[in-house]
Every structure is written in C-alpha cells, then in structure tokens.
C-alpha cells in the first residue's frame, strides 16, 4: 500500500459503535459462557444496567461478532514488502539473466510438431511411432 494512503488511513478516526450493546460485549460473552439464554441476558440488562433490549437483538449481536471473529481467523497474511522478497540478488543480475535466456536459440525439440493439424479433422497428437519412422 502506498505510504501516502497508509498515512491517511491511520489518521482516519474509528466510527463510534452502532449498537448500544457494544460497550457490554464482554458481559454478554461471559453470561453466554455461563450458559445463560438470550432471554436471561435481556433480563439481566433490564435489572442491573437499566437497559431494555430484546433477546433477538442480543442474539443478532452475538452472531455478527462470531462471524467477524471467524473471518479474521481465515484472513490471508498480508503480502511481504518487496524488500523482504530479495535474497541478495541485484536487479542488474536478474535483468542480465533474463537477457541471456532471451538470446538462447530455441531447442531442437521444440521444433518437432506435437499436434497434427488438418482443417477438416479434429486436432490430434502426432503419434511418436509415425514421427520416428519418417525420420
């Protein structure tokens, strides 16, 4: 990623939470760990936090976060920086090797036809026996 874009992204503030349950995510997770139902958690919030919330809202909140955690686990690693890919070979060495390969004449094997072409027939492999007997 371009350094200029990275700087802009780092300077962009996080959005405020969209859910009123966001500050209580740990409480919900702990109550679920203790085997409480979503209805029990909704009642707990009403009694102890003076927060009215439907059990289905808590369920949806938990589901979304579970999917996010699952997605984070399977995320691919970031690409290594180009400097990490270098193994002590200079660009000039690489370019000279490429030029050397381009200057090489094609091998004799590549000149032998692999396929037999006749526009009135399907394309087919050249039989090795027939090819060898012709030479």
Explain how this protein is built.
By secondary structure, the protein is an all-alpha fold. It has one domain. Helices cover 54% and strands 3% of the residues. It has seven helices and two strands. It has a two-stranded antiparallel ribbon with strand order 1-2. The longest helix is centred in the middle third of the chain and has 20 residues. The protein is elongated. The chain starts with a helix and ends with a helix. 7% of the residues are buried. The model has no long low-confidence stretch (mean pLDDT 80).
Largest sheet properties: 2 strands, antiparallel
Beta content comes to under 5%
* Helix coverage percent: 40-55%
- Summed over residues and divided by their number, the pLDDT gives a mean of 80
Structural classification: mainly alpha
Element-level helix/strand string: HHHHHHEEH
Beta strand count? 2
Tally of distinct domains: 1
Strand order of the largest sheet: 1-2
Count the DSSP helices.
Answer: 7
How far apart the termini lie comes to 58 Å
Q: Assign an overall shape.
A: elongated
Low-pLDDT sequence parts: none
Question: C-alpha Rg, in Å?
Answer: 33 Å
